[in-house]
Design brief:
- By secondary structure, the protein is an alpha/beta fold.
- The chain has three domains: 3-129 and 270-350 and 431-451, 3-Layer(bba) Sandwich (FAD/NAD(P)-binding domain); 132-266, FAD/NAD(P)-binding domain (3-Layer(bba) Sandwich), CATH 3.50.50; 363-414, no CATH class.
- Helix content is 33%, strand content 25%.
- The chain is built from 16 helices and 21 strands.
- Strands 1, 2, 3, 4, 5, 6 and 19 form a seven-stranded mixed β-sheet that branches.
- Strand 4 and strand 5 form a beta hairpin.
- The longest helix has 17 residues, at 337-353.
- The radius of gyration is 22 Å and the shape is globular.
- It starts with a helix and ends with a helix.
Length: 452
């Protein structure tokens, strides 16, 4: 690295209460520290490239390898983390990418700094988030996302002896239920909106993947005795200041179930804000890539859930292909195509089996809150023809989450799609915006000159 890069890494530029800007320059920059990002960074670094990985969580691993899951000896997480460490990959955690001030330069806000990230090749591995659907009482305390509750328990939330109702769709439901039960939770019921016919078809699609079948059998043993309902979903949640009971619908009948937590999740949706800001082409709600995971934007690749939700194995192999392609190891990348094709078949079966049923669109009543940030109710939205129009008149999707929660909901309820993304793509401090507006300081000129 040049002397200027080294100086940027240790020097502080004071700009009010926030402490500093820190400059980095990488041949390959990976955004996202989940399985896809770890695999991409490791494979690129093993080709002797200068690699950096940035993630908004305190530690790498993503949701799937959060906390103790990544520390177990011999686990996939520990293996990839060891490969990163062995190759000296620069790790920047607790930093959220929020802007693209100029080509091949990203800005990421951390607690006490703004990181200026210059790169030659960029790999996006931004993951996915849960889809929430609004229903009466979904804003009550202790009504939470399935993955969110799992993350909180992994981070230390006491769950032993707590009664939990789990509702939604997808393989995440039983996986989280097993995790919570192992830690002492009482799983009252798992409500899966998909039909037994769809689940049977999904099971048949796994016959060529014995690893998936073993996972399913293990979950079945862990959840022995837990009531699992298909064609079932939550209708409403009730309580005073906090949740007291949930009402579910199954076989055309409703039933109230006392519970301490109601965990809901209607599958996953890719995080597309950064790919859209960078100009990547979006198709059917996913980033469009070629065989080598290259997006429509030169020198920007994408791997993992943003290209289509398909599970950890698909994320890893896509990350490997992207990392190898980014450093020119195309032949080696091509040798992973067959493995990727196998896991993509699983992803297609997943999407078909757990497609949301139309009945769920009738869950919200006129008074149900749809946009929690701006307190926008269903009755104020159903008169508009597009999300843009609804935003202009109601501010739906314009609060702190910037539509991350209500966006997938209105897409399902009204078939509205996000039409644009503007920086900053998440809430940041005014000092960070000042960095974005003013551009790099003069001390950065030599570092960023090659990234024009």
């Amino acid at each position: 690295m040049s002397a200027v890069v080294e100086r940027c890494a240790r020097q502080e530029w004071k700009s009010g209460p926030m402490s500093r800007e820190v400059c980095h320059q990488f041949e390959v920059l990976v955004v996202g520290g989940g399985p896809a990002g770890l695999a991409a960074a490791a494979r690129a670094a093993e080709a002797s490239a200068t690699v950096g990985i940035v993630d908004d969580n305190p530690k790498l691993g993503g949701q799937i390898w959060r906390g103790a899951d990544q520390d177990a000896a011999g686990s996939d997480a520990s293996m990839w983390l060891a490969r990163l460490k062995a190759r000296g990959v620069a790790v920047i955690c607790g930093a959220s990418v929020f802007d693209l001030p100029r080509p091949r330069v990203l800005l990421a806000e951390a607690e006490t700094a703004v990181h200026v990230l210059a790169y030659s090749k960029l790999i996006l591995a931004t993951g996915a988030r849960e889809r929430f659907l609004p229903f009466l009482g979904w804003t009550l305390q202790n009504v939470i996302g399935v993955g969110g509750l799992q993350a909180m328990v992994k981070s230390g939330l006491p769950i032993r002896g707590r009664r939990v109702v789990i509702s939604g769709t997808g393989p995440l439901l039983p996986a989280v239920a097993a995790h919570l039960r192992e830690r002492g939770a009482e799983i009252m019921v798992i409500c899966e909106q998909a039909s037994w016919t769809n689940l049977l078809g999904f099971g048949c699609s796994l016959l060529q993947q014995p690893g998936k079948i073993r996972q399913g059998l293990r979950l079945s043993r862990q959840l022995a005795g837990v009531k699992f309902l298909t064609n079932a979903w939550v209708v409403s949640a009730h309580g005073g200041t906090a949740l007291e009971y949930a009402v579910i619908r199954s076989k055309g009948e409703t039933k109230a179930i006392p519970c301490d937590y109601l965990a809901c999740g209607f599958h996953l949706v890719p995080n597309l804000e950064l790919p859209m800001l960078l100009g990547c082409r979006i198709r059917n709600g996913c980033v469009e890539v070629d065989d080598l995971q290259q997006t429509a934007v030169p020198n920007i690749l994408c791997a993992g859930e943003p290209t289509g939700v398909g599970g950890v194995e698909l994320s890893i192999v896509e990350g490997e292909i992207a990392g190898l392609a980014a450093v020119g190891r195309v032949d080696e990348a091509k040798r992973r195509f067959r493995e990727r094709a196998k896991h993509r078949a699983f992803a297609h079966a997943l999407d078909h089996a757990f497609r949301l049923r139309h009945e769920l669109s009738s869950l919200p009543s006129p008074d149900t809150v749809v946009c929690r940030c701006e307190d926008v109710r269903y009755s104020r939205l159903d008169r508009y023809a597009s999300w843009r129009s609804a935003k202009l008149h109601t501010r739906c999707g314009m609060g702190p989450c910037q539509g991350r929660v209500c966006g997938p909901a209105v897409q399902f309820l009204f078939n509205w799609n996000s039409e644009s993304v503007r920086p900053p793509i998440l809430p940041v401090r005014v000092e960070s915006l000042a960095v974005s507006a003013s551009g790099p300081r003069s001390e950065y000129a030599e570092v960023l000159g090659g990234s024009k």
